[in-house]
Amino acid sequence: MVFSSNPLSLSVPDPTFESWLRDSGYLDVIDDRQSAAAAATTTHSKDTDSTTTIPMTGFLYSYLVSLFANLWIMLSLFTLNPFSKLTTNDFGGETPSWTKGFFGDCGSYSFPASSSQARLRVHENVKRYARNYASLFILFFACSLYQLPVALVGLVSSLALWDFFRFFSDKWGLDRFPITQQILIRFAQIATAVILLWLNVQMALSCALGVSYIVMILHAAFRKLTPVKQPSRVRVK
Description:
Blueprint: H1 14-24, H2 27-51, H3 56-77, H4 98-103, H5 115-128, H6 130-147, H7 149-172, H8 178-198, H9 201-222
Helix pairs in contact: 2-5, 3-5, 5-9, 6-9, 7-8, 7-9
């Protein structure tokens, strides 16, 4: 659905119109409006500079201001909580297409114009591509285990330990002895923790989590919001 900048500008102020877009789910329109406003400001600034002679110090000052503004936007990405609006329902739907949906084309990416736009993109894209990010984490974790074979041995050993525990628990009927079963479970948990720590499984997990988080934050911040299919509204006669 295509909107002009504000088709109801004579009767509805911009904040109210933007609030309606947000409540109606047209977050992609808000994203486009913020990008267009930033582009218009940049164009106006360039036109002013072209008609006014500015000394070299002025250009340097303008460049530094722009540089620090972009750095502040990048730093703000690591101060927000990208999972604040994530729910379990976001993992229940179909996985978006990797080519058209997740990656898109070159025109699907742009530097966020402000911290608020970066926050809007991150929160919405994390909800939309939750299953894609989860798949990437599994891929990165598998690569980490490949690079650290000892960690792979530790992970397999811990899984085998619990498999053996379940087998002998069913064979010996430990369900009839809950106290003994709880004691053995505690010993198995301690043994699992020792195996995971001793064989550096936590190192592989930390690397996978760190890389996945950075990739998720950068992709969600630079990926433009795309229109989503709005639910059909049934008219009551």
